[in-house]
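During the second year of the project, the team shifted from modelling isolated chains to modelling whole assemblies. The rationale, set out in the original proposal, was that interfaces cannot be judged from single-chain predictions alone. As a representative example for this report, we include one of the complexes processed in the last quarter. Its constituent sequences, exactly as entered into the pipeline, are reproduced here:
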Amino acid sequence: MTRRYLATALLIGLGGPAQAQTAPQLPPPEKTDPAALQLMQGFPPPPDKTVTLGTVLRVPANARWANQHFRELGPTVAVWRGPGGPSALKSAPRDLDALAFEDDKAQRTTFADWQKSTYTDALLVMHKGAVVYERYDAGLRTNVPHVLWSMTKSFTGLLTALAIHEGKLDPKAKISQYLPELADSAWGDATLQQTLDMTTAVRYGEDITNPKAEIFQYLISNGLVPAPANYPGPRTMLAFLRSLPKDGEHGAGFAYKTVDTEILGWLLQRTSGKSFAELVSERIWRGIGAEEDAYVWVDSSGAQVTSIGLSATLRDLGRFGEMIRQGGEVNGKRVLPKEVIDEIRKGADREKFKASGLAPRFGYSYHNQWWISHDAAGSFEAKGLNGQHLHINPAAELVIVKLSSHPAGNTILTHNLDRRAFEAVAKAIGVKALAK
Amino acid sequence: MTRRYLATALLIGLGGPAQAQTAPQLPPPEKTDPAALQLMQGFPPPPDKTVTLGTVLRVPANARWANQHFRELGPTVAVWRGPGGPSALKSAPRDLDALAFEDDKAQRTTFADWQKSTYTDALLVMHKGAVVYERYDAGLRTNVPHVLWSMTKSFTGLLTALAIHEGKLDPKAKISQYLPELADSAWGDATLQQTLDMTTAVRYGEDITNPKAEIFQYLISNGLVPAPANYPGPRTMLAFLRSLPKDGEHGAGFAYKTVDTEILGWLLQRTSGKSFAELVSERIWRGIGAEEDAYVWVDSSGAQVTSIGLSATLRDLGRFGEMIRQGGEVNGKRVLPKEVIDEIRKGADREKFKASGLAPRFGYSYHNQWWISHDAAGSFEAKGLNGQHLHINPAAELVIVKLSSHPAGNTILTHNLDRRAFEAVAKAIGVKALAK
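Output from the structure prediction step:
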């Protein structure tokens, strides 16, 4: 049981305390490559090469397969790309594989080695809107959506901030004003902005070392972890969210909590009358000229998982990142109001962020579900489990998308390393370095 | 239990004996319209408006919602449309709604009324390759795939016939030559062609009035029907197929059996090394210039359901039908060899077909998983549960696609009525009538 919980935790944990942030024993990257291991090959594949939802959380290689095949494991809903055809992507290729840089342990590494050692499934570098570098590994292909895990949160935060900008939502309003059924839960007297910035006080643990942490109940409730036999807890996501009590004072400090985002998603859908997949399609996916449909994981009651449920292709994430970098425009066409992105980039209270214990990211803040570095380059990020990254460097006019299956899960473990790789790219293409 | 089985049977049954083909009590069409009933509206929808896989088979309205939302209820895999963008569809619209004709009970009806009374979700008429008529109902939209049920079989049959044409498969070979693990099953000494034409002798019933019919085990094995508590039967589709014994002599007569198609799908995937979704994508979907990805239902072990598992959009089915009508070409570009379609159109032994008991369709035969009418117009068809139709009339240069949610399930119940509607369209657009 402990072993299973630990494996689950490694996969999912994103915001545990600092003392838990030591790297566990990891399998070598090639031992997790589903293509090399021939997972799910053959009709039928041999039993020990068959990935089921119940095995994903125990076997890193199975997780790596699942990260690009989640729709084959359970219910999902399409995020339609719209009728317009994909927007053009300029190309200005550079061979960055041999690019050398010093890693966070003062060892020399290269751009290619960094990708391998961090279990990268796909990597995209865009400079001034043109694709400079694009690589796929582990069997991933251009047209296949990869799970975003908590990068999903930045979509939900963006849509919420957009609704605020449009006057449809009030950031100072209590959550229970929009969702009366949450009056008796932790969110009854939390404001929308506190939920957006994850400064709510909820008895909910995302601590990856605690087998009793509520994140496991969350994952069972939305179907991403199969319920054990005779499981007594909530079997739907909304029932689980309603069950969480307050614990402390809202607004006191930042605590990374996936459930805050699910509240936003629920509220967004309730107030707009549209599903999350419809909102992402109408307000973002069509606007950027996505090449492929994305998709969203759905729980057993049909609720869409708005905190960790999105899957999308590398190129479409590049288009998305580039739209954000351009302040809401794609090829001169406005998709989102510039003010919404300007507001995100302002960030939140960096002192309150320190309550998170995410030491490698001290200096950051978390605002409207985006990670704001407050560096001189103005870089800001969407992040997800297993090493999902959308890194935007406005000063360098750079967008980097990294889709990965790092078995250690928590991106904080590779934070300093990944930042060095991003900085090396910025230097290599001849732009200002990131401020350290 | 009986009631549940009956509902299931009504939804799924396709080839039961003639005496079972009387129409059951049916709900009025408007009482099954998920849009009008506001099924799955609201966040969350009220419990009595929530569709789950377990309720689909008991409630016709839920089935109607599910028919255009199956991916939201379980695992699926994408059939990629490819990178080329959709092929152009010419348009030559005509208002056919008021078109009057005499139904199979000698009552006057109209094209619009026929659609409503047969629970039509979408209808497309193409003449000489141009869209003459296109309608959507019950909330279905142009970009949303609708389940095809047994129309899936005609895709599997087409791919098998293609592999035979290319010399990769031998129609006279025994199934066990390709799938040795089936040596002790019903298919051990059945030939590929017998399986293609459903003249195998398998102890398997698709009889919709028999609660013990094996089709229910089949549906539980592939996950389309949730397993009852403590269900002792096979939990994967391949395990179920292996368990079926022989019952009689192969080749003696036609007996409609979904499981024959699953054997073809298994064999196709084993011998090609590609999944069904990959084969449909590479050999058909890309070739026709599909506008949207299709998708395939997947069982709990990852096996793709090749007999009833496809969902696709109305327009893409029009493109597919038109390619078949044109003998394998789309806009002058060859997609499939003409010989493969010519072979299908030859049909099989019409005397052996009568063993099926499908009296309204006597005169037909079933060859390579297509329904061949042997009428003067040379019409042939793909058919599926709930009234899915792809009707191709070569003489009239006509393709009709009908996607429906008829709660009586079996298309044989509306066979004569539907043929009259197709004939009325052929007459209305000024071409030769179908031979009766």
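Chain A has a mean pLDDT of 92. Chain A is about 30% helix and 15% strand.
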